Amino acid sequence: MTTLHDDIDHVLVTGEQLQAKVAELGAAISRDYAGKDLLLVSILKGGVVFMADLMRAVTIPCAIDFMVVSSYGGANTETTGLVKIIKDLDADLTGRHVLLVEDILDTGVTLSNLVPMLKLRNPSSVKLCTILSKPSRRKADIEPDYLGFEVPDEFVVGYGLDYDEKYRNLPYVGVLKPEIYNH
Q1: For position 79, what pLDDT does the model report?
Q2: Whole-angstrom distance, CA of residue 170 vs CA of residue 107
Q3: pTM for this one?
Q4: Which end of the chain is less packed: N or C, by CB atoms within 10 Å?
Q5: 129: phi then psi, degrees, rounded to nearest 5
Q6: pLDDT over 80 at 166, yes or no
Q7: H/E run at residue 35
Q8: 10 in a structural domain
Q9: Which CATH number covers residue 94?
Q10: Domain that holds residue 36
Q11: Phi-psi bin for 88: left (phi > 0), alpha (psi -120 to 50), beta?
């Protein structure tokens, strides 16, 4: 019987490396936002695994909320350049410190459109925390305020990242075998 692991060419970031980095990011965020009204906002679906781990690593009071924002479609591996809010926040951002929690900062198109939209809602600040970044693919002028790992321009899955809604549940970040998405 084949498993999801069989479709992985190689592991880029192990589960142990992810957990150590999440603990480090949680400590930095706890220190930087001490005494502030912190709202962690996960961009679904990819950000949910990282968000679940990160919020447990944050040791100060914080609230959470979720958005669904799309610039990809189905099995597409390239961004469309169009950003669509599918599920908006429930929380009022006025006076709050918003930390967007994302799985990967790739082209930056989605987040470079989303951040200014959120700033119009009168938060005290809007910053970005991403577990992965692919700077070689950046098309927009945006960088994370909190970063886990920089990764090369390879098709990565696991730890929330998917291909055609699969592989999100892998406990590590791996490179998908090209034959899986080049069929």
Answers
A1: 55
A2: 23
A3: 0.91
A4: N
A5: -125, 120
A6: yes
A7: none
A8: no
A9: 3.40.50.2020
A10: 15-154
A11: beta
Q: How many domains does the chain have?
A: 1
pLDDT above 70 for 143: yes
Average pLDDT, stretch 127-139?
Answer: 96
Is 65 among the residues known to form the active site?
A: no
pLDDT band at 80 (very low <50, low <70, confident <90, very high): low
Residue in 20, 22, 6 with CA at minimum distance from that of residue 103: 22
Catalytic member of 106, 153, 162, 164: 106
Structural domain contains residue 58: yes
User: Does 95 fall in a domain?
Assistant: yes
Cα angle, residue 112 at apex, residues 78 and 88 outer, rounded to 5°: 90
Q: Where are the beta strands (DSSP E) in the chain?
A: 8-13, 38-44, 62-70, 84-87, 97-105, 125-133, 146-150, 156-157, 173-176
